[in-house]
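Field: COMPLEX_INPUT
Field: COMPONENT_COUNT = two
Field: RESIDUE_TOTAL = 646
Field: MODE = joint
Values follow.
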Amino acid sequence: MNAKRTEKRLERKNDELMERSGNFENPFETKGRFSKYARVPIYLLTVVMIAPYYWMITSSFKSVKELQKVPPTIFPEKWIPGNYWDPNYDPNMYQQDIMQGLFQRFTKVEFGFGRFFLNSFFITTTITILTLLIGSLAAYVVAKHRFKAKRAIYLVIIGSMMIPWQVGLIPGFLLVDDLGWLNTFWAYIIPALPKAFIVFFLVQYLSSIPDELIEAARIDGAREWTIYFRIVLPLLKPAMIAMMIFTAIGEWNNFLWPLIITQSQDMANLPVALALLKNSGAGNIGTQGVIMAAALLVSLPTIILYFLTQRHFIRGIALSGIK
Amino acid sequence: MATKQINSNISYTPTKKKGFYKFSESGIASYVMLAPFVLLFIVWAVYPVLSSLRLSFMRYNAICDETLSPCGSVGFGNYTYLILQDSRFHKALLNTSLYVIGAVTLGLIASLSLSLALQADTRANRVLRVIFFLPSVTSGIAVVLVWGWVFRGDDVGLLNSLLSWFGIAPVEWLATPSLAIPILIFMSIWGGAGFGMVLFLAGLNAIPAMYYEAAVIDGANRRDRFRYITLPLLKPVMVYVVITGTIGAFQIFEGVYLLFPTSVGSIGGLKDMALMIVPYLYDMGFNRFRLGYASAVAWILFAIIFTISLINIRVTKSLEDLR
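Field: COMPLEX_OUTPUT
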């Protein structure tokens, strides 16, 4: 019960910190004759921000003929699903102006483009769950247990954050190769599990939680695992949710490592599949509709996740940045 | 100077020791909890880094053959060749430096301005903040593909269509060496300003209103209040944004890989106009399989990032001491 209350308190404190506003001076708020135009630049910029998304959506529903028009139409003359799936498409015939829809491509791959969704989904969820589990266990030990090597271990973990991950890229690749893991899910998942930042973040968060909470449980005779599952995990919930979202989005969008370890199309994740699609299009303007359809489908899940978890998300960024 | 020293000594209080019982008392559970992370961390984070350091002093190509392609130590050979003779690497260094300077400074200005403009907690601002943040959660590859269409060199390119309304002839955006870096900088700001904005917003909201009230009573005008209250109090956030932004900018890969391909299996665009450090590392390691050489590139990347972070922290510290 006590744990619950502390959690609530921490959450409220964070919310207050984040959501309190309007308490400071804004040099952008101009007074005088031009004040009503002061926000025009911001709205122009907003158009620049939205334009790529607008273009992704609209052009994924344009016909090949419309895509070839100069200048391009800003609003589709006719919305057609052909870039996703064209019922008129016949693989045995050359047809002008009919595109092979996104889900009609990658015919050599099981489930076609859907396969990349399955890959990405499996990889992302597995990594997110496992990395948070082992990360939080380690963070708990580092933050709340005392032993000799603790400082040294934690220093190495923090220190590793200063090294760009590309430094380990080539030996990582060689190691994966030696293990025979190239082109397997193992190569995606196992090397991605130890994330120093998660341990660092959770240790920071745990250090703001009083030791007495855990001490009391120990005096009551609780075992370490009980303490972890019953007290530490519930307390860590806000931090864990933030880390979960970061990890999931990061892994969903991961590109360089998957690019190196995949050798056949069927093991590609979505970003790698996008790159494959782009290279197969060879700059033909007609294929742009299919590419935009794919880009949209790849972007949607993370955007939806962001909308669903916005509050946790922003709080997580602020927590990790301001400390 | 001397008084400062003493003052800082007095204000220094040793951090309270965290943790409350000895490792041995908590039994084997602590080891079990720590083990998964630490073991994975040693194999997939510590070992690759050390191994890459070893590789960087070696000639190590994909196939080691006594006569055709011998592998073995070359001392500092890779480094001296990279630093003194490799003109492609020099081009990559120059490009990356220009890109980092542009992306970080303009990005800092953009995100600070955005946070100031969108700080008031109105409904419109909340919507705008979400829009500006969207690129941070969107797949980088998806976004790059849209930009690829925007900057197409022919008359179906979106920017060229826009220019044609004003009677301007199509520009080969991605094939003009002087435009490569500015385009990449623009993409970086479009994609990253929202993230910095969120950090700055958190920083702004943490400034107590009474500072401003006190300043108003003392007769400080709007500009003074911004100069002497807002900016100094935002400095920690600024340092964070600059350091993380610099580290991130040095690692640019996706935009170069997709927008600036060169004929067969090489990266960097026409005359290496967009060649950067990580794409060069990829090119050396995974197109040419010169793994030792690529490792040396990775360590130079680390050295640069490390030095810049240190300088950044030092400069901020010394500026603080001046006041």
